[in-house]
Design a protein that fits this description.
This is F-box domain-containing protein. It contains 19 helices and 16 strands. It is globular, with a radius of gyration of 27 Å. It has 513 residues and is of the alpha/beta class. The termini are far apart. The strands form 2 sheets. The protein has a 14-stranded parallel sheet. It has a two-stranded parallel ribbon with strand order 12-14. Among the domains are: 41 residues; 226 residues, Ribonuclease Inhibitor (Leucine-rich repeat, LRR (right-handed beta-alpha superhelix), Alpha-Beta Horseshoe), CATH 3.80.10.10.
Amino acid sequence: MILLREIILNIVEFLKDDISTLYSCILVNREWCKIIIPILWNDTFKRIRPFNNNGQSPEGKQLISTYIKSLSQESRKSLKKYGIKFLTKEKSLFNYSEFLRSLDAYYLKVYVRSWFYFTTRDDIDIAKKNYKTEQIQIMSLLLLNHFLEQSSCLISLKIASSDITEEIVKALQNNSQARSCLSNLKSLKQHHNVHPVSTRLLSQLAEHSWNIQHIDVAIHTEISELSTLIFFQRNLKRLTIRNKNVVVGSRICKNYTLSNRIDDIVPAILHQSSSMTQLKLESIKFPLEFLNQFNNLTELELKLCGYNQEDLNNFTQISLNNLEIFLLESKYPIYLKPFVDFIRNSGKNLKKFLLHGCQIEDPENAQSIITSLTNFSPNLVYYDGPILKDNTFELETMLNQCTQLRTLLLHPSIPRCYSPIPSINFDPLFNIITHNKSHKLENLVIIHAWKISEGALLDFFETHKKKNIGPIQFNYEKDCTVFPGISTICSKYNDFGVGLDCKITYYPKYYYH
């Protein structure tokens, strides 16, 4: 029997993403059913379910209906006190809640709302208003506590609204089963469009959850609890921190609230440097001189962190041999020269290089960026950054030598790309891309200040058509100078199958006032 179980598990490992086939497998026999049901129900909130035109999810409603069947009589009575009826007396064959391993608190609420919508819409007593916000909240919190009590182990938790967060805090304080449930938590994430995470939750998790490998949260001004949580993890691999106290928009807030407190979190992050493979920071000015300690880092993302020239010069001394993805995004003026050395020291395994900034202090060094990537990043797949209009030779060489290159997002390398007078002619670079016989580009985007002619675009599409190597996506940013009828040409070649979703696109501007 043990051997049979191992064989079935090996089979379903290849089918774990094929839900319909797994549902068919449960009909084989009782043993298959007992093995596969826990797999089908371990991440029900992780799979985004389709919504109808009213923004409701029929599948989500059915999911909640199934979980309601496993509620205790006491829980059902408490729901009825708040006027929540339509609760079936039917019991489910399995306690599906005990199989749950991934919980997304946002979709828990969304699916509870869908449950109310579909179960009450035909009730004439509440035809004008199908349900109350309070009822959604009550049922969501009750199901949350039910999951924390019934699931033996939640591996992934994605949080959203503050009421859900506070309920988790209460459960951790008062319920030993909830503490056990979250003791082996591997992933703590937060939906991006919500308020900063509760420091009380971070404090509780620091006491009970020490095996988290992925943390992705937003903070405000209090960071000591997050520092403690980070420090106590045994094998933290991926860390994303977003500072929500900085104003987001075309202008940057000059006062970084965390700037005087960043020292509080640096030791905690450095404590995890040997295990960390992914570090993403937004509006947090982490000292760049410490990056050399992250020997296993494969992805580094630094967004709007407020680095000046002195800070950026640290990149000349940074060597990250395992780095595959690098992004730096700045509203302050940026200097390209430090990144030339950085690519030389860290480019061996680099696949994606993104450098965003609309104020370039040394635009002539774009040529050296392109050359450095060509010489030291043979595995480059994606380049999103500056180039000079005269870098035709450097671009040709890159296309010839970086044989894995599939995506180019090209920005003009000028001091102020958001207000150039006049626009910068992209046609010479366009001509190189059009007639180069080596590249296998799938996506070309031109950003901000470029100007293209009708003849150059037609030549690009017609030449690509003759190559017969599949469609290519071409996008032009809304601030580019284009000719009348460009959208018609793009649509025409989309219809021919030469282009793929070729159209205008939108790209943020990064500059500091």
